[in-house]
């Protein structure tokens, strides 16, 4: 007998469940297109060479301890992460208007940001695109926000439903939060053009809609870290406020290390100080403080110009391979006749 005897069997997560089914399938020609994890030509996971080097350096450094990090994580990692997404010369950083806290990868950053907004922001509705990453509505709902949708993908053109997007954001209540995929929209791969981003920015600022960027793939869309960050930087350049969730899972291949950051760009330095104090109150009862290894690897790479350059080369190689694999899949499906429908 169990006190839990009445408990119902929960369904598998729709995305991670594909991996469960994949592992069970005895077929020798199976391919797992479920979870978004990079694979080599041999179908194997990849640890970047620059990551292996950084880990060696960390292991060989006798001055390193396993002490707790502060609630906000590794300070150097936070600074470098903000620079990576907002640009080294970002005025918002120079004016000390950016607060960054290390979080448990992209998911944890979204969750901490969501709970902060639920506690301290006047508007609790967050608009998410249709479709979007399946975890988005669950994360924000559990954080205490109300998730609503805006039109994003148009199946007829297999492109952006720009008019639908503009209509839906135009009719959102003043001050609503809007979740934006910074680049490489998941699951469609459809991103606005720079021109469309500029129109979205103007519309959002005119209605005081608060941008919450999700950057899970910086570098994967174009192969360039700076190019993929351009839409975000347009929003920072206008002096307005925003939230930013960053993940190193894909672009540094650190999936299981759970390394990411939440940044909040604030209107002034003194607001940023108070925002940080409140973020600590969100994090402390949730997991107390974040892990040490992942951000140490990232900081080792980002602070050293040679290692940083090596990273950009390895990142570009991953991005190029992804782009060429998609093209080959597209061509192969097309050559077998019928219309191609990639989801
Ligand atoms: N946002 C998007 C759009 C994603 O696709 C993912 C990963 N699939 C994440 C956030 C978060 O991933 P992680 O928590 O592993 O960084």
UniProtKB/TrEMBL annotation:
Keywords: Aminotransferase, Pyridoxal phosphate, Transferase. GO terms for biological process: amino acid metabolic process. The keyword Transferase applies. Belongs to the class-I pyridoxal-phosphate-dependent aminotransferase family. Residues 30-337 form the Aminotransferase class I/classII large domain. Homodimer. It comes from the Eukaryota. This is Aspartate aminotransferase. Its EC number is 2.6.1.1.
């Amino acid at each position: 007998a169990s006190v839990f005897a009445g408990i119902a069997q929960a369904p598998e997560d729709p995305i991670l469940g594909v991996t469960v089914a994949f592992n069970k399938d005895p077929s020798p020609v199976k391919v797992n297109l479920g979870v978004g994890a990079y694979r080599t030509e041999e179908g194997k996971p990849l640890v970047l060479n620059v990551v292996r080097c950084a880990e060696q350096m960390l292991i060989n450094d006798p001055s390193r301890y396993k002490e707790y990090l502060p609630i906000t994580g590794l300070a150097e990692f936070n600074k470098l992460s903000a620079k990576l997404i907002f640009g080294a010369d970002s005025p918002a950083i120079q004016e000390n208007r950016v607060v960054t806290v290390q979080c448990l990868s992209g998911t944890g950053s979204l969750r901490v940001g969501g709970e902060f907004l639920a506690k301290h922001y006047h508007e609790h509705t967050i608009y998410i695109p249709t479709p979007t990453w399946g975890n988005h509505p669950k994360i924000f709902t559990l954080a205490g926000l109300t998730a609503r949708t805006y039109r994003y993908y148009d199946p007829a053109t297999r492109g952006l439903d720009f008019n639908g997007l503009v209509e839906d954001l135009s009719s959102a209540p003043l001050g609503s939060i809007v979740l934006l995929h910074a680049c490489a929209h998941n699951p469609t791969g459809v991103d606005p053009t720079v021109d469309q981003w500029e129109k979205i920015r103007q519309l959002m600022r005119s209605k005081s809609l608060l941008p919450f960027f999700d950057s899970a793939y910086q570098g994967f869309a174009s192969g360039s870290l700076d190019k993929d960050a351009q839409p975000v930087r347009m929003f920072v350049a206008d002096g307005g406020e925003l939230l930013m969730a960053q993940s190193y899972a894909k672009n540094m291949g650190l999936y299981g290390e759970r390394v990411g950051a939440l940044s909040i760009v604030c209107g002034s330095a003194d607001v940023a100080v108070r925002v940080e104090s409140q973020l600590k109150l969100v994090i402390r009862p949730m997991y107390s403080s974040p892990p040490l290894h992942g951000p140490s690897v990232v900081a080792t790479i980002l602070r050293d110009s040679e290692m940083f350059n090596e990273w950009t080369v390895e990142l570009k190689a991953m991005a190029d391979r992804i782009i060429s694999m998609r093209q080959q899949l597209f061509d192969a499906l097309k050559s077998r006749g019928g219309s191609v429908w990639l989801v």
